[in-house]
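Re: that chain you flagged

S.,

Sorry for the slow reply, it's been a week of failed gels. I finally had a moment to sit down with the sequence you sent. For the record, here it is as I used it:
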Amino acid sequence: MKWIVGLGNPGTAYQGTRHNIGFMAVDALAKRWGISVTQNKCKALLGEGIAAGTKVVLIKPMTYMNLSGETVRGFIDYFKADLADCIIVYDDLDTEIGKIRLRYQGSAGGHNGIKSIIAHTGTQVFNRVRMGISRPQPGMNIADYVLSNFPKGDTDKVASMVEEACDAIEFALGHPFDQTMAKFNR
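Prediction finished late last night. Pasting the structure tokens below so you have them in one place:
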């Protein structure tokens, strides 16, 4: 079983914001694979199905970003899941809008959702798809920036980035993550 966790914040106030790009990717995968993400378990919405011949679980934590690790830990404990089979999808300030970067380990880099996952799993080693949201203009509050919507002019870039992230995740279902990184990191 592979499990994909898209990071974001629940509620309509946060839909479409930069911080919810992980939710957008999970929603796109759900649509692509015909999976309904509506089961309430492990402080998250879950959806189970088959993609590329592999059992997958799509996960949207409902804990708010800063507590995402509670969902990841809960899923590991409840399903006896292996963190090596997980892919975390989230927003990244240090990657340009429209670009994705894949990693299998590293620090949180200031991302509170990743910080929470590291704290709850006790490791920095897990597969990640970082989706670019770029940095705000100097002087702009980072919290305000990540909780704001993408500019209308970036709609095509964002849609294309979500599709590329979904392509990378789908490829990772049948290939080692280092091979996926080699193919999708440019």
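What I noticed first: The helical segments are 21-33, 68-79, 112-121, 142-146, 155-172, 177-184.

Talk soon,
D.
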